[in-house]
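Newbie here. two chains, one complex. Structure please?
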Amino acid sequence: MINVLYIDDEEHNLTSFRAAFRRTFQVFVTTEPSEAVRILEENPIEVVISDQKMPTLSGVEFFELIMPEHPNPVRMLLTGHADIDAVIDAINKGQIYKYISKPWNEAELKRLVEEASELYQFRTAQDTQASDYSKRLYSAQEKLESLISEIKSSTDITNDNKESYIETINGAISLLQVPT
Amino acid sequence: MTNRKAISRLSFLLFVVSIFSFQASSFAQKYLGSRLEILSTTELNADVQSPIDLLHETWVRSDLDVPNLGNSSNWVWARLDLDPVIDAGLSVEIAYATIDSLQVFMVCDGIVKSKSSAGATIPRSLREQQLGNYPSFPIPVEDCMKLTCYIRAWSGKQILLPVRVEGSRKLLTDGHYRDVFFAIYFGVVISLLIYNLFLYFSVKDNNYLQYVLFIIAVGGTQLVLNGYDRVFELISSPWLALRITHIFGILSGVFSILFVRNFLHLKSKAPLYHKIFGWLYIPYVFASILLVLGYFNASYDMINVSALSIVLLVPVSIKVWRSGDESAAYFLVGWLVFITAVTVFVLKDFGLIPYNEATLYALPIGSAIELVVLSLALGSRINQLKKDRQKAKEKELNTSLLNEKIQREQNVELEKNVTERTSELTEMNDSLAETLEDLKSAQQQLIQSEKLASLGQLTAGIAHELNNPINFVTSSTQSLKRDFSDLKEVIQSVAGLQPMSDKLSDELEVVIQRMKELDIAFTLKEIDELLAGVEDGAERTAEIVSGLRIFSRMDGNQSSDANINELLTSTLIILRSNLKDEADVLTEFSENLPNINCQPGKLNQVFMNIITNAAQATMETQLIRSEREVKVRTRLVNDAGKQFIQVDITDNGVGMSEQKKSQIFNPFFTTKGVGQGTGLGLSIVKGILDDHDATIEITSEIGQGTTFLLSFPL
């Protein structure tokens, strides 16, 4: 089940959203931004949907608030009336993936959430893969370094050969190092 | 015209008749000029006092009845042989009054028997007793062979010697006649004098005074010429006595010039004659100087020569007469008579016409007639004046009529001008009205655009406000369907249970298991929640629609009774979504607010405008959302017996400076960026409030907030 967080100041919207999607997604709803942040910290939320027009802060402001800590969840903005300037701004800053206008179409919203979830999965997978690769690179590096120390301590190999081997291995290590 | 001709002809006829009637009368005089011998050589005898010394001089017999000895400063001698028998007891009369010094010697056979004196210079005590106004000398009764009367005379004037020898009775009788004649004459003169003097005092016309002076001069001249000054011993001073004839002559001339110049208005009617008559004073001045210096005869000549100038009066009178002054005709006649009289008088002196009583009296008669006619001329002047005045009045009347006419014409012109100007003004007014219409329509367009801006804001707000209920109502119905289908499934399963079946408990177990799977408990709770949402959504939609209906009247100008609280509520509903992220709106409405008659749509516009501005003012502060607020309060206020509904809208926004406060109601004043507002909002608000007789007060402090206090009179 996809974990979806929906924040809106309108309680009825939350109720109907949960009623609509509780069978398909794991739905988290709240009217409070602070509660939303707590939910994000405690649950692997994949998709965050926020209403734009809220009394305490706007949807775009909310996204700006959570992005540093939770960059991965895919963000979608729900706007009552086409506050097009805010939307354009948000898209350009990379803060949102999609925007949805009220009243929402349930099927479309479902599709969008699923797409967003796929994007999240892809992003997460990429992250996993990347960390896997870097782990393997790191272990290879370690192995090569231990190999250098073995070569140094070995008596079977001549000093000339030792230097030649170490130079070759160091070249390999430098190749493995990720350019910063 | 005929009148004057008749008068002139009549007077001339009278004059001629009088001359010849005198000639024919019983007291016709007999002058002895033909018996007189004149001493022609006059140079030797200046100091000769006695006729004895002159016995052997050459005496020349006179040709005339009355010898004219001329105007000489020398002593003159004449002698008359008398008959000692016939003439004894009679008197020698020298009928000439102006001989200044006269001595008569009666010489009997070469011996001077008597010597008598007369004349102006001789004191009365030494003078012979006069019989009448002329000197006369008694002829002594002597027994002598030859009785001769020697006359020695000197005068500062011309000397004539009209000599008669008559008895005393005859002389007295003639004297009486003369006295009567002159009495009449002076009577005429004095009455004319008094009459004109009286006229002068009543009319205050200087002409009369000048005429009076002229009369005095003329009368005086006749008085002295005929010796009445001495008859009545009027002049005691010998100095004056020698000069009195000259003086009256000079005065006659001067006063006649004065009178003529003024009477005929020469200055305006005949300027040239005015000048000439002015110059005529000069010879009289010389005559006066000569007289004072003692040149009596020269002075006398000068006076006579100057007097010739009276002929000038004929052309000048005619000229003035022709110029329309009818009194000049009388004047002309008067002077013509006088000139004729003078002519006759002078001709007589030179023996050209008989020297008799008629010719002798020509001068007084002529002067009397002249004075009378001139008096008539003055009378005519009064008539003339009357006529002139009448004419002037008529002229004045004509002028005023003309003026009236001109004024009427001017009035017509003026009216025309006024009409033209009025039509111009009307045109201008029309064009101004057109301009005003244009301006009004421009204003209407601006107001319209402001209204459209408000409507845009409004529709956006409403769209959003409607979006939420529509969103959760539509979404909830879908969820409800699903929830109900779950319930239906469970109910159908329960309905399919066979109560008597052995497997009831098992089947029931399946149903319960299914109910757990479907989380029916949660579903039931959810249904309640969803239904509550739908209900709320429907309510809110209805509320918004109702608010919209109120706002749909924004265009209408109809008045109706409305409750301010309701209007504010609807405005806040419409604004709710707009204000949601701007500020909290707190309301404090007085519960028993009466309805007021107003234009509700317009008031909504007012409230929306002020509340929106208030919320925006809070946005400009550093306050966070939960601290930003707009308070809207209504209350009923009693002030001095008047009731008001007060609406105050207070924000805790940035506040305004005094300058800004004074400008906010000005059209086009805006603090917003270009394209974000027309600047008309509050100016329209002011207009709407003015229409409602409502007042708006603003209190504001920078950094603290602003209060708009609206008072609606009930």
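Moderator note: The CA atoms of residues 28 and 356 of chain B lie 7 Å apart. The radius of gyration of chain B is 71 Å. Thread marked as resolved.
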